[in-house]
Amino acid sequence: MENEIKNNKILEMIKANKFILYIISTIILLIFLSINYFDYYQKKQNNKISEQYIKAGIYLALKDVEKSETIYKEIILSKNHFYSLLSLNSLIENEIIKDNDEMLQLFDKVKNVQKNEEQKDLVLFKKALYLMNISKVDEGHKILKEIVAKNSLWKDISLEILN
Question: What is the pLDDT averaged over residues 11-20?
Answer without folding.
Answer: 80
